[in-house]
Amino acid sequence: MSSLRSLVCGLALLVALPSLAQVPFELQPRPNGPYEIRGVVVDAGTGQPVPEVELSFQESAQPTSPPFEIIQSDANGAFRVRNLAEGKFTIRASRQGYVEQAFLQHENYWTGIAVGPGKDSLHVRFPLSPSATITGQVTDENGEAVREATVTLWVQQMENGAHAITQGQTAQTDDEGRYRLEHLQTGEYSLSVTAMPWYSRYMQSQQPKEGALAPPAREAQEALPDAVYATLYYRNSRDWHGMEWIKLQAGQTESADFKLVAEPSAHLQVQTGQSDTQPPTNFALMMELPGEGRSNVTYRGVRTGSGTMEISGVPEGRYRIQMGSGGNEKETEQEVDLSADSQLRLESPTTGGLAIRGVIRVAPGAPKIEQAMLQLKDAEGHAYNSLFYEASGNVDNPPGTFVFANVPAGQVLQLSFLQPQDAVVKEIEAKGAKVSGATIETDGSQEVSLTVTVAQISTTLDGAALKQGKPFAGAMILLMPEDHKDWERLMRRDQSDSDGTFRLTTILPGKYVLFALENGWGMEWSEPEVLQPFLAKAQKLEVGERPLSAVTLEVQ
User: Computed over its alpha carbons, how large is the radius of gyration of the chain?
Assistant: First the structure.
């Protein structure tokens, strides 16, 4: 049972409230019937019953709707819901000191409780994980508290079968420079802190918005030191590659302090190559974030002459500069090491590359696609660009058309749909490019014009995961394309419910391999060699336009 949207919407009912019973919404009508769910909530670490846990119940087919019942476990952790109709139900649990979670939750997937003839819904054992906490204090070089510093949590985890670093919650330091990050699951975490010396806040307030070119008041420049704090990563590293990781166990509280030292601001004189008569330039100063992210850096910018800007208010370090005027203009991008006094010359952005223009046609008998997200990938499978398509058109494109601007010549590109998930490119006719299936090869001699015929074709696969002949709850069900190509778009996942059943939806035509993995959640299954030992017991499937028969799968 899975859905990111349903997880967010459902857990939103649980967050930051002492009692779900106090939430001002109407409960859904009860799905009345002769069945019931009984179980006990236990501490995931000790196995001991957990009393007074708030439990919400929803029909699994309506995961974004309000629950139909909210109860508390008793003094022995036991709970019971009577008079239920046959079906599947989602249980979510919340209690102070524990991580809010759905039953057997892994990532954005969980197990539904199957209720009905021959279904065991009377022995539910709900393991609840105690939450962990990170606290600390941020001080300056004099040992004084740094107020209003932003502490950001970084999480190292498996995401879509690959190791990833993602940004978690943030916290602001209080008047004593202290912060607290709560409700954390077992895992590996690190931290970063960004702040501004108190005397620099006035200078920063002169800038109306991030990255805008607004000169700070002259009296502020003359009276206050032009000093900044560099972003620090745990423990006190200026480079995220050198940050250390905290391994948090369930229920653990860890302390992480930071000491910030003010330093002179870097100054960069940028010659943009633009005259004062040209339109305003979109100028962005960015820093690298953990993983593959970037973030715009707030700076002070002063236009000091024709085509010249002076950038300050940032610490020394390595940054990436982007400049462009939007629309179909090519962006100039360059890395730069900022020191106390740096100079940089940027070439004026000019229109460059190819434009790939297209018209979308719907295959006979297929429903019209009103909105879509189209994507181009290069020959290595890396995303080149994505755009939002509206059949009704917009200010940039007439109805039924799209444009990919500034595509480098001589590229081999793959066109696909990210949304809707069941959209399939049936045929592409092209002028100015060679086409094979959904692959487009440009030579740069002329603009590319495409006519894309698309249909919505997908099927659903139902099945059951068994271990030693018995239904298995909580297995990761993974459907991967046989050749592993374009797996991120074609892959489908689910988690088996209490009766071992699962459902995979919007499967596109192609050849696939189906796995049921007991411990797949911590596995780097995005790498083909990791799945190799499990191929013998996996099932191969060929998906076309016809419905698929139900399958039975052995859990490995």
Answer: 28
What is the rounded (10 degree) CA torsion for 92, 97, 99, 102? -10
Render pLDDT for 1-29 as a digit per residue (tens, 0 to 9): 754 433 333 333 333 333 444 445 688 88
The CATH code of the domain at 132-263 is 2.60.40.1120
The β-bridge partners of 284 are 322
Residues, the chain: 556
Burial (CB count within 10 angstroms: exposed 0-12, middle 13-18, buried 19+), residue 367: exposed
Which pair of tokens denotes residue 51?
Answer: 């009393």
Cβ(241)–Cβ(289) under 8 Å?
Answer: no
Give the domain 459-554 fold: Immunoglobulin-like (2.60.40)
Rounded CA-CA distance 522/159 in Å is 9
- Residue 58 CB burial class (10 angstroms; 0-12, 13-18, ≥19): buried
**pLDDT, average across residues 490-496:** 96
- Tokens representing residue 94 in the block: 């919340």
3-state DSSP assignment of residue 299: coil
Tell me the β-bridge partners of 119.
none
C-beta separation of 507 from 459 below 8 A: yes
Range 4-128 classified under CATH 2.60.40.10 = yes
Judge contact between 33 and 86, C-beta under 8 A.
yes
pTM: 0.82
Whole-number Å distance between alpha carbons of 152 and 149: 10
| Chain centroid to CA 125 | 30
CB 247 within 8 A of CB 256: no
What's the count of helices (H) and strands (E) in the chain, helices before strands?
5, 44
Mind listing the pLDDT tens digit for each residue in 232-261? 999 989 999 999 999 999 999 999 999 999
2.40.50, 2.40.10, 2.60.40, 1.20.120: which CATH number matches 265-345? Answer: 2.60.40
Closest CA to 356 of 412, 413, 405, 398: 405
List, in sequence order, every beta strand (DSSP E) within 122-262.
Answer: 124-128, 132-140, 150-159, 162-172, 178-184, 187-194, 227-228, 232-233, 246-248, 253-255, 258-260
For residues 249 and 251, what is the distance between their CA atoms, to the nearest angstrom? 6
Token pair recorded at residue 414? 């793959």
Annotated domain spans of the chain: 4-128, 132-263, 265-345, 354-456, 459-554
Inter-residue contact 35 to 116 (CB < 8 Å): yes
* pLDDT digit string, tens, across residues 297-315: 888 777 766 677 788 888 9
Q: Which residue has the tokens 């202290």?
A: 178
The gap from C-alpha 309 to its chain's centroid, in whole angstroms, comes to 35
Strand partners, 404: 356
Position of tokens 């490019």? 433
Instruction: Quote the CA–CA distance of 56 and 21 in Å, as a whole number.
Output: 10
Q: Looking at the domain 354-456, which fold is it?
A: Immunoglobulin-like (2.60.40)
- Of 300, 338, 317, give the one whose Cα is nearest residue 196: 300
Domains 132-263 and 354-456 alike in fold: yes
